[in-house]
Sequence to fold (81 residues):
Amino acid sequence: MINPDQAVDPIATDKESPASIAKNPAAVALGRLGGLKGGPARAKKLTAAQRSEIARKAARARWGADAQGHEPEVSSGTVIT
Fold:
């Protein structure tokens, strides 16, 4: 039987945790390069209305209604619609 005082969290001591695995520097550089190119290219092809809608959706996801449907109070007087 395991003594709870001596129990060790297997997740905390796992040698193959993602933090301990070394990343390939070439792959990291390539991924970053793609990200640096992709974001501005996507923004350039979107209309102002599309960018606004994406930003509105992101704001709702981050600060929007809670599980009960209550909208957060906005201090500046603006309402996100």
